Fold these 2 entries.
Entry 1:
Amino acid sequence: MPERVVVVNPHQKSPASDFSIALLNEFVLLGLRDLVLCPGARSQALALAAAELERAGGIRLHVRTDERSAGFLALGLALETGRPALVVVTSGTAVANLHPAVLEAHHAGVPMILLTADRPTELRGIRSNQTTVQPGIFGVATRLCLDVPAPVGEPDETGIAAALARQTTDAATGVFTAAPGPVQVNLAFREPLSAALPAGLPPVAPVASVAPVASTGGPTMLLAPGPRTIVVAGDGAGTEAEELAHVGGWPLLAEVSSGARFGPNLVVHYRELLGAVDLGGEVERVIVFGHPTLSREIPALIERHGVETIVIAPTGLEWYNPGHAVRAFTRSIGADASCAAAARTPAGRQWLGRWVMTSRALTDAAADEGRVPIDRRGITRAELAVLRAPLTRALLVDAVWRASWPHDRLVLGASRLIREADKRVPGKKITVLANRGLAGIDGTIATALGVALASQAEPEPRSVGVTRVLMGDLTFLHDVGSLLLAPGEPRPRLQVIVGVDGGGSIFDGLEVARTAPAEAMERVLYTPRNVDLRALAAAYGWDYEAAATRADLERALTAAPTGPVILEVPLVR
Ligand SMILES: Cc1ncc(C[n+]2csc(CCOP(=O)(O)OP(=O)(O)O)c2C)c(N)n1
Ligand SMILES: [Mg+2]
């Protein structure tokens, strides 16, 4: 191969490069650490500045090919750290490919800063190559969208760049709005699109630390004891929901990705109990944290006549309000002193006890059903039979839940498995994340990669364990492109666990399955797919394991992976 001759003109100046270095430098000083980029010519000044900053130890650089993957990777990084990740892309469809992750970030309130390179004004609207209307392309989904004119080398431009970094970081983290989310900085660049950077830029280190906004001051609403109350914790509710349930002595109905699925007040089988006249039927007041999305019973309860609902959200643009039936909304809440005393009265104890005990009885009944009869002669054979029996969704989620500990991370894809987990797993104080903003089946591998990379990042890893992500086969196939990793970048301990049932089996449980013709149902809803995951893993350089029985599964989950691995689990449709 002929050697490439690079001609660098050290005297060439590029305002694009000067501006890009100043901008990214300021982001680093503000405490941003992760930058995801995809290659392109128009964005080269930003990309080269990013490479330089990586070399100087200022940022962790993640290079991807597909902008859709890059967007979701940034989302996962921010889910773990609470800090926005920067995303650098070139012009045209590259920008549009960020849209799914931007929408998820918008609806879930996850900070993200998009640096989208663009043509300068004189090249717009005249059919220039790779040129579209980029400012505002994400519509209402961005907290702030700035169209920044091409730098021309004016002396104050680096100051403008630094101010831009501060303004956009504030907007993404919701400093003034209490609504963290995506921000788009559309950056026009003129030729020369880059210049050689001065060698050996001094290392930059953060002087500030960006943190997600947190409500300050005391609670803005105080609850009095009184009506029969339950606490609901939807996705992202956090530990506050558990604390309030505990203080008030109220049953806690916490979804699996709520961050509040633990504690003595937890009611695992809340769906069944909400349907029972003598428990669900008696509820008079509902306190909601987070974003409930996994059951029909919760919104139905809130919409029921005579039920008073209060919704608490420390941040966000929209309030959860099923049927427009919510009575009050507040940024923070507390229980007044008499709540704790009321919780200790016989009536208070009884209310909580009935929920918790009934739920436990249902757990025990389910466990008895699966128990192997102990008989002197048959014990070994029966046990072996269980270990060798094909896996069910229940066995799969139970095993993954049992294997997960506080030093691990668990990401749950949309569809059946997260619902199965929500219906059955016991309380455990572990970090569980899911993209429930829009509950898409897209970007799940990339999101989990972001969580894994951010949680395991040296030198002070936030997690010394494993990140596991559990998803259906269509969800996996939707995001196969995210398996494409850059050589030389860290390979996180990530176990991608795929429940393979040949298609989208969630639709089998919907009303439509009873009314649609079987053939059409198969063709347009279940959408059968049959892909060789082992070959895919090999093609992308991932490790691969298959677990067809409980014994295989236990083995695969207990042997901690040393890098990224796909674990295929066949399931009966
Ligand atoms: C981006 C996106 N497209 C389509 C959907 C609708 N959808 C929800 S679940 C699902 C099927 C998921 O199948 P799979 O991942 O195999 O899970 P399973 O239902 O089989 O457990 C689809 C297509 C969605 N949520 N997001
Ligand atoms: Mg499936």
Entry 2:
Amino acid sequence: MKITSAEFTKSAFNESHWTTDGLPEIAFLGRSNVGKSSLLNSLLQRKGLARTSNTPGRTQSINFFLINESFYFTDLPGYGYAKVSKTMRHDWGVMAEEYLSQRRELVLSIQLVDSRHDPTQLDRQLHEWLIHHHKNHFIVATKTDKLSNNKLKKSFAEIEKSLTGSKIIAYSALTGKGRDEVWREIGNSLEKR
Ligand SMILES: Nc1nc2c(ncn2[C@@H]2O[C@H](COP(=O)(O)OP(=O)(O)OP(=O)(O)O)[C@@H](O)[C@H]2O)c(=O)[nH]1
Ligand SMILES: [Mg+2]
């Protein structure tokens, strides 16, 4: 897909802040620090559009990015950061579930997992939720540049075993590996709408 424009539109802390123009949305979901904002920037080839950081739990709201004036990317806060309070963890679940279950504009959810580790319990829970609710989705295994080909193969097989029944794409925001494949899937989901 040719990107002609990409701009940050707004941060939403609850339903009343969601956009109202009815354009389709693609959500990026995954644990804190897994590389959601980096994936988004890498797909759009705009380095600083979504803020990335080494401090987990940075993104606390749903951030909307308008692409080509025709669809949105939504960057959701990361889950599973150990140092946040119980209340905040609870709030994440409420906000994410509210958005995922109610948002009619949502045409695709992209769930990120770290290619170097087995999916966490929260990763598996989210994945089961997506399957159970028949949400159009696929998995992106991030940071593959940090693994040798051999290790990646093993790790990929573990992820497949753990998150069964979903397409998984190996990605690197550093090298752009997987970029074309992710765009193909996004294009398909937008067309189906
Ligand atoms: N080497 C490498 N580093 C990556 C990749 N993707 C992300 N990172 C790094 O991982 C860290 C976290 O990336 P973010 O994109 O901020 O992660 P996030 O999921 O948006 O994090 P939160 O917003 O806190 O939930 C940053 O230091 C990134 O530079 C990748 O593909 N390769
Ligand atoms: Mg982020």
